[in-house]
Amino acid sequence: MPLRSDWSSTTCPIARSADVLADPWVLVILRELFSGRSRFDQLRDATGAADSVLARRLSSMIDAGLLARSGEPRAGYRLTDAGRETLPILHAYARFSRVTDPDDEFGLTVTCGRCGEPAASVDWCPSCAAPLDADSTLWARRSMGGTPFALSGAGA
Fold first, then answer.
1. pTM beyond 0.70, yes or no
2. What is the CA 99 to chain-centroid distance, rounded?
3. I want to staple 64 with a disulfide (CB 3.0 to 4.6 A). Which of 20, 49, 79, 120 is the partner?
4. Cα 16 to Cα 69, 86, 89, distances in angstroms
5. Please, are residues 82 and 66 in contact by the beta-carbon 8 Å criterion?
6. Can you name the residues that pair with 68 across neighbouring β-strands?
7. What is the pLDDT along the chain (156 residues), one digit of tens a residue?
């Protein structure tokens, strides 16, 4: 799903990954899937994407192996193992946002669900040395009241 160029066959792994993940809609959709929204209407309402834009991105994300359709009719989408691997990328974006705007009223706090400590890393808890994966990470989004919640919609 290239923005400007097709880097899908380049030898650079960063360029190939950017070919799939550099679209801002993809990152926002991933955020919402990790937040527990999985149905088309939920994703549309949470992202503000037009139906046609969302449908194209979801289709591209399925083609890229990030998502699969849930087995039940109208059940929505679920992250695949590859989709779950994008979590540290979202954490890096959230961390970068805090660095560039510490007073961001819509910030995202990442906490280790195992020990309860805030995470300063994007993929490992510096306190208990456990991975910050979809099954053990809590997010607190100021835009959602700041109450930590477990990531969902992540099951493959």
1. yes
2. 19
3. 20
4. 24, 14, 15
5. yes
6. 78
7. 444 567 677 788 888 888 889 899 999 999 999 999 999 999 999 999 999 999 999 999 999 999 999 877 777 999 999 999 999 999 999 888 877 887 777 778 899 999 999 888 889 999 999 999 999 999 987 777 778 888 875 454
Question: Tokens standing for 136?
Answer: 């053990």
* Tokens coding 92: 């890096």
Structure-token match 């991933």, residue found: 30
